[in-house]
């Protein structure tokens, strides 16, 4: 009986998990990665630090999972029948406001990644690799449909082009990325590079 009670205490409901993740992202936006502590997360979420470590193991893993949870949808379930349709569906699933928030988070994390290999690895495992897999699936289907030549050298750079467009607009134009920009970027840069 005591084990059942203890197990109930340590189980976090999906609603509570979502609240914790939102609090983590809010703190990350407010103070940045380096100043974000498990103590601050525990205080903000009215949790114990022991619970946070038991559930997530480390600050990098907690942040990576919070970012993953924040993603509106996976690319894995997108299949419109054309690469242009798939890429546009990917953009349509985003929200301009959320993209601006996400860009601010990522700017803050880019610096921290260089000084923290554990954060870099957690982000690669929980956020980047699943997205790369989903994007590679979209591209593989485009090759199978005959939309893109299998030997097109741009295939291996699509993710670089996507990230570059996302980062460069803010850097070059001092404007946040939005759906209209990404849709235009896909048509003007990515699809022509792939021969579409």
TrEMBL record:
- For this UniProt record, give its keywords in alphabetical order, as a comma-separated list: DNA-binding, Transcription, Transcription regulation
Annotated InterPro entries? Homeodomain-like_sf, HTH-type_TetR-like_transc_reg, HTH_TetR, Tet_transcr_reg_TetR-rel_C_sf, TetR_C
Q: Superkingdom of the source?
A: Bacteria
* Pfam families per record: TetR_C_11, TetR_N
HTH tetR-type domain mapped to chain residues: 14-74
Signal peptide residues are: none
The UniProt annotation gives the DNA-binding region as: 37-56
**Transcription regulation as a keyword?**
yes
User: Which protein is depicted?
Assistant: TetR/AcrR family transcriptional regulator
